[in-house]
Amino acid sequence: MTRRGFTLIELLVVIAIIAILAAILFPIFAQAKVAAKATADLSNLKQIGTSIQMYLADHDDTYPSAYYYNNDNNSTNGYTQWSGSIEPYVKNLEIFRSPLDPTGGLAPTNFIGNNRGFGVPAGQVTQYALQDNQAPRLSYIANGMIMPRKRRTVDPMSVLSATAIDEVA
Fold it and tell me: What are residue 158's phi and psi, to 5 degrees?
């Protein structure tokens, strides 16, 4: 009775073929992963845009400020940022984090502890021990021409009405 099996050469040929196929497919998988993240990023921006549209409907067609001081004098009581202004219209705070952002988004200027369970990027420290009114992690910024930093009432810049914008980019 003879036993039939694979020779060492046959096994090495099969392993070499699998290695070649893997070398061909890994870059394709990496590209597909980046494309999926870009699609998720686009979906996040669409949801943020929809939330801003709902904010506009509730606030007399006026965009939120990029941020403002909560006490109208300085930052000792923290900030309210545009992402905090539209937060009531958002179902999932993860939309403020880009899947393509290697840091996972910046934390607010002021946060307490683990930043509402979202953590903090390495090296980022809080200014004051309080929680700003903004998304716990943020990868996106506001257009300063539409949503300027109006930190205090006396600051000269004002937010725009949606009707003041002639066309979108």
Answer: -125, 155
3-class secondary structure, 98: coil
123-166 pLDDT, tens digit per residue, is: 999 999 999 999 999 999 988 888 888 888 888 878 888 888 88
* Dist CA 63 CA 74 (whole Å): 22
Neighbours of 157 (CB within 10 A): 14
For residue 25, what is the enclosing H or E element?
Answer: helix 8-58
Two tokens at 137?
């992690």
pLDDT by 10-residue block (mean), the chain, 169 residues: 80 93 86 91 95 94 91 89 95 94 92 93 91 95 86 82 81
CA pair distance 169, 167, nearest whole angstrom: 7
pTM: 0.79
**In DSSP terms, which residues pair with 79 in a beta bridge?**
69
Longest dimension (CA), the chain: 98
- Going from N- to C-terminal start, the domains of the chain cover 12-164
